[in-house]
From TrEMBL:
Superkingdom of the organism of origin: Bacteria
CDD domains: Tetrahydromethanopterin_reductase
Domain spans labelled Luciferase-like: 8-291
Pfam family, one: Bac_luciferase
Keywords per UniProt: Oxidoreductase
Lineage: Bacteria, Bacillati, Actinomycetota, Actinomycetes, Kitasatosporales
Name of this protein: LLM class F420-dependent oxidoreductase
InterPro entries xref list: F420-G6PD/mer (IPR050564), F420_G6P_DH-rel (IPR019945), Luciferase-like_dom (IPR011251), Luciferase-like_sf (IPR036661)
Length: 323
């Protein structure tokens, strides 16, 4: 059975609205939720970027059932891994065991703000691997000291630890990140329905572990309005991670996508109100082997309508199609 999740997209809604949305998503019957962790929106039109960890803490108190997860946090530039470990342990306690820590090597868009520069992809993977080791050590209890190539830790300890540490997921986009995830992660995260990513994850130790995908969708009773909104706010999505991870500012994404047409976006993002179209877009993830698929409804002002429609029409249709 494939689980269907809801995305709290911090780039397109304010903090109070995001918490309200996930409360409604829980009531609507979504199986889990994920939260982006950004400092900037991808495009100015999205218009938001509150601090994800405050939103998550509030969401943990406002909900009682739905699992919560970062999708994803970079634990190596904007945040130090020792601080990420503390945040994640606290979230696991607040949520009473409903939190998963999704990690990735990050994007220049968010990490450049601390003025440390933007490392090469190879160095970012080295930093991520070292960061995961530090986080795991701190989850284990006791004092941790570390002198590594990229990070130092001086007698750190987490004083509030859950009985079970949060599972760690690692985002993948190629062979190197799949190898890292297979060795170090409890689950794998991807934004493309590529079977070869999951096969590589399995080869490196990932067999039997959960695999979480994500898909943007744009619900609206007026399909033309949905296509316009998807183009306005999500035309960056098709750039691919090698491009998207390098651009430093929303204006960079605007320039890079200036020739993307609405019909180009509509060819990859289901738009409108036909559940069959949404099911057809989700199906490649299920066929590739993803066990969980988080939907991103494009447009912060359209979340309530999307959640209501999902409860009545979309979720039943998806569960029937993917059973």
């Amino acid at each position: 059975m494939v689980h269907i999740g809801y995305t709290m997209m911090t780039e397109q809604a304010g903090p109070r609205e995001l918490v309200d949305h996930v409360v409604r998503a829980e009531e609507a019957g979504f199986d889990f939720s994920v939260t982006s962790d950004h400092y900037f929106p991808w495009l100015r039109e999205q218009g938001h970027s509150p601090y994800a960890w405050c939103v998550l803490g509030a969401a943990a108190q406002a909900t009682s059932r739905i699992p919560l997860m970062t999708y994803v946090t970079c634990p190596s530039v904007r945040y130090h891994p020792a601080v990420v470990a503390q945040k994640a342990a606290t979230m696991q306690l607040l949520s009473q065991g409903r939190f998963r820590l999704g990690l990735g090597s990050g994007e220049n868009l968010n990490e450049h703000v601390v003025g440390r520069g933007w490392p090469s992809a190879e160095v970012r993977h080295e930093m991520l691997e070292e960061a995961v080791g530090i986080i795991r050590d701190l989850f284990g209890g006791g004092h941790v000291s570390h002198r590594g190539r990229h990070f130092g830790v001086d007698s750190a300890r987490l004083w509030d630890l859950p009985d079970e540490p949060p599972p760690i997921g690692i985002a993948v986009s190629g062979e190197r990140s799949c190898a890292l995830a297979g060795r170090l992660a409890d689950l794998v995260i991807a934004t493309e329905p590529k079977r070869d990513l999951l096969d590589s994850f399995d080869r490196h130790g990932g067999k039997g572990k959960p695999r979480v995908g994500q898909l943007p969708v744009c619900y609206d009773r007026d399909r033309h309005a949905a296509v316009r909104r998807a183009h306005e706010q999500f035309r960056w999505f098709g750039g691919g991670w090698k491009v998207n991870s390098e651009l430093p500012h929303p204006d960079s994404f605007a320039s890079a996508t200036q020739y993307v047409r609405p019909e180009d976006v509509a060819s990859s993002i289901p738009c409108g109100d036909d559940p069959a179209d949404f099911a057809e877009a989700v199906r490649p993830y299920a066929e590739a082997g993803f066990t969980e698929i988080a939907l991103v409804q494009v447009g912060g002002d359209s979340q309530s309508e999307f959640i209501d429609w999902s409860a009545k029409e979309l979720l039943p249709a998806l569960r029937e199609a993917l059973h």
